[in-house]
Amino acid sequence: MKKAVLAVITITMGMLALQSQAQAQDTSGNWLVRARAVHIDPADKSDPVGGTGASNRIGVENRTIPEVDISYFFTPNIAAELVLTYPQKHDVYLDGQSIGTFKHLPPSLLAQYHFTPDKTVSPYVGLGVNWTTFSKNDMLNGQGSLEHDSFGLAAQAGIDFKLDTHWSLNVDVKKLQIRSDVLIGGVKASHVKVDPVLFGVGVGYRF
């Protein structure tokens, strides 16, 4: 029992020493805040409306939005990123004709691995979850709506270009899993896979 306790203490102190050493080597800090301009490109895949006819008749408009994300580095290579924006308004189309609008708020949380954090060019990948909440549905004169919430996977790949100890430029690509039933008069009429690809460019500050 004593040997087990000593082993746990030794491992714990070793991990703390490694973390302290990593933090001492990186004087730029553990927090990274980025501001990006992000272009949303939806997949626009949907089931037949009413269960009959052609697929992919329902679409969501492309648009560019502002985005802010906050990252915390647990080690030089491993970080967690929270992606935030404000509710975004989108037009919805049926066979190319507008049938109304809705708003959505799509925060995502991702775990990241940074391959070369000590280099000027630092690529990374991330994997996590996305939660999208839909609101203010205004489709088909109030008869159409989307489900309230969507939960799905989020994946990303990006590169930070360091300008100095604190500032960096960033390019980033994300794929989000956003899906919802389409309701008409409260009855399911179709299922849409928005599943957008997000192309982002921005600036970051680490402290």
Describe this structure in words.
- With 207 residues, the protein is mainly β.
- It has a single domain (29-206), classed as Porin (Beta Barrel), CATH 2.40.160.20.
- Helix content is 12%, strand content 61%.
- The protein has one helix at residues 2-25; strands at 31-41, 45-46, 58-60, 63-73, 78-84, 88-94, 97-105, 108-114, 121-139, 144-146, 149-162, 167-176, 179-184, 187-193, 197-206.
- An 8-stranded antiparallel barrel has the order 1-4-5-8-9-11-12-15. Strands 2-14-13-10 form a 4-stranded antiparallel β-sheet, with no helix packed on it.
- The longest helix is centred in the N-terminal third of the chain and has 24 residues, at 2-25.
- The chain is elongated, with a radius of gyration of 22 Å.
- The model is unreliable at 1-9 and 11-25 (pLDDT under 50).
Could you please say which CATH topology applies here?
A: Porin
Strand content: over 45%
- Structurally, the number of domains stands at 1
What does the radius of gyration come to? 22 Å
Secondary-structure element series: HEEEEEEEEEEEEEEE
Give the spatial strand order of the biggest sheet: 1-4-5-8-9-11-12-15
Helix count, DSSP H or I runs of 4 or more residues: 1
Portion of residues within helices: 10-25%
The CATH level-2 architecture is identified as Beta Barrel
Question: What is the CATH class name?
Answer: Mainly Beta
Mean pLDDT: 87
